Amino acid sequence: MTLVCFTNPWGFVDNSRDERNMLKSWREGLVFFGFAGRFRFFRDVILKGSLGKYFLPETSDDNGMGYLMRQADREVSGREQRMSQEDFSQERPDFLQLCLEARMDGKPLTAMQKRAHVTLLIQAGADTTGTALGSTIRFLLTHPAVFARVRAELAAAADAKLLSTPIQFEETRAHLPYFVACIKESLRLHPPATNLFGRVAPSPDGKVVDGTWVPAGAEITSNSYVVQRDPHLYAPDPEVYRPERWLEDEGNSKEHISEMDASAFVFGVGPRVCLGKDLAIMELYKLLPETFRQFDFDMKEEGEFVVVGGIAYNERHLVATAKLIPETTIISVYNTVLQVTGTMDYSLQNHRSFIGSKVTDLPTPSFVLSLPTIKKNIERLHQDVEKAGVTLRPHVKTLKSLEVTRLMLGNGKYKRVVASTLSEIRGLLPLAEEGILEEVLYGLPPPASTIHLLEDLRKSTNVQLMIDHEKQLIIVEKFVAKNTESTIKPWDIYIKLDVGSKRAGLPLDSDRLTKLIQHVNNSSAVTLKGFYCHAGHSYGCRTPQEVEDLLTVEINSVLSAAKLVTGDRKLTLSVGATPTAHVVGTLKAAIPENVTLELHAGNFPTNDLQQVATSVIGAEDQAIRVLSEVCSVYPERNEALINAGTIALSKEAGPDPGYGKVVGKPDWAVVRMSQEHGILGEVQTPGSKTTEPERRDVEANFDVGDKMFLNVQHACITAAAFYVYYVVDENDVVVDTWVPWKGW
């Protein structure tokens, strides 16, 4: 729908998730939507009075109707800015373009009218057709006789060579009458929009409707959920799903069927019928028959149809196994998204079906995130950054997900990040489109083969480069010289310093650093933005004082590098690693006026055993756990086998023994691993004085089938192995799932 409305699709279907939290915000705003749209007293008296400020949504809201209004404003302002350019052209008009070009009495729409129309485009198009798809599939799979007849009709039409691949709209109408009846019956019983907007009787005389006088000013509305259960029209079984009622050859008169069609209020009627009606029907008539032609189904979970604020949606998943000869696949309808994919791991393909489940019901191994802990860790760093008077540039490499990046940025309070892969930058683009993100620093000295790809991404947001060698600069200069289009503008670059990690960067006393700065100053292909250093060796610190000392080294290094730049050029000096970020609140350095000091860190929302070992955080600040399961127990060697090995945990080590530590059992850890095998063994935790025999006996602690949580040594490496994160609340109930960006 976003393709039709805004030309550029937002990725709901491609990414199989609620992009930008649009559906969530829409549903959170439905109560307000229902009251404001259906109750004139609330709309005209309460909202316009002194109480309105307590009810009206604001565009600064992080969710709900206000958030959708902000997205609508962003779409409008972005298109109007493009329209103001001389070379603007819209090859195929979309709904947004038609809205902006519309005229009322020769005048363009007001800003409020534009917002209202575009917000409605986002709302109505995003959810209602998905609800219809889900409801139809639910009805078919819960009525075996109907399902069998649908399959038989499809097979007969295919044998007669009446159907294309994929099935076309007109073919469904002409050759699949029973399937059409099934769709109509689904829309009758489960209309996506149940309560249509009211109409006000005109002044001064009112209106006579069907022999009944309606006084002037009276507001009349209709409820399709009720109308389409009229016992006079759908007798004798208005509450029953019976598609046959729509077929002439089942004993129904053509006149009666026409009357039912005329009474179908699901899309509204008259001059204000839903603009997307024809598109929605086309989607239903094309997608559903093709899906049921290719797949055989077995219902697992029905889901639930709910109505809020006059709008209906599928509150929980509809989940079914679907067999496609010769492969087996999974099809799931979650709210509005129909997913049909190839053979894949059950936990990945149906991850959202676990929302509402206890964490121990998850498949193993699973990657579990504590949302309260993540929010607490992020809020603490935000407070420390404010106290220190510096700004923040989060690194997205740990969880590589839109959801946690939004939290790290404070939903736009901070507008710059570091990314380590092109995949991460691509995943960040929705935040750039929203205006939440303005700068992305590519955190690796750029390989020559990636410059053209980074340039493509730079068209969507300000991608910056990090260099530590003169030849990298020469590569950029050659690229700019070769691509002479006006769109190629100088690159913002940071020069990387090595402050002791010996990973990347130039030492402060290197002659090559001075030479590189001079080359940058003389180059028309780049602009020096600042200096960047990363104290990766801070992970080896064991006390807060050691970490504070390294933060001081970082700051002194970038300040010294800034002095090598002539003049009072404004520079950004970027320091940090997660350990040093944890002590930024102790910062007391004097910062010159021409310098902006920023902190970068990536692991701070999650933390891990390596972070705990630095003593700047506690074990309770770890937001990551890996859920694993005991596969076997070996009392003769006092060990157990679990299904989390090198792939699930990584072979990262730390001061605490083992590759993963059993939560609640401090003397047990993963002591050996192969690819999928993890061996639990007894370890001596520093400071532990355990002597109780039962705490050291494997059979007293673990049994086959037991599930346990593991704290991990390095969150970034562990997270990279998983394709979905299960997000839990303070009660260990799954409240969301996050899908990370994969690849490079």
UniProtKB/TrEMBL annotation:
Any GO MF annotation of the entry: oxidoreductase activity, acting on paired donors, with incorporation or reduction of molecular oxygen
Domain of life: Eukaryota
A GO BP entry: D-serine catabolic process
Enzyme Commission code: 4.3.1.18
Keyword terms, alphabetized: Detoxification, Heme, Iron, Lyase, Metal-binding, Pyridoxal phosphate, Zinc
Pfam families to which the protein is assigned, alphabetical: Ala_racemase_N (PF01168), D-ser_dehydrat (PF14031), p450 (PF00067)
Every D-serine dehydratase-like domain range: 623-729
Alphabetical list of InterPro entries matching this protein: Ala_racemase_N, Cyt_P450, Cyt_P450_CS, Cyt_P450_E_grp-I, Cyt_P450_sf, D-amino_acid_metab_enzyme, D-ser_dehydrat-like_dom, D-ser_dehydrat-like_sf
Catalytic activity: D-serine = pyruvate + NH4(+)
Cofactor requirement: heme; pyridoxal 5'-phosphate; Zn(2+)
Gene3D superfamilies: Alanine racemase, Cytochrome P450, D-serine dehydratase-like domain
Transmembrane segments: none
Annotated residues for binding of heme: 274
Biological role: Catalyzes the conversion of D-serine to pyruvate and ammonia. May play a role in D-serine detoxification.
Family: Belongs to the DSD1 family.
Protein name as annotated: D-serine dehydratase
Organism: Colletotrichum lupini
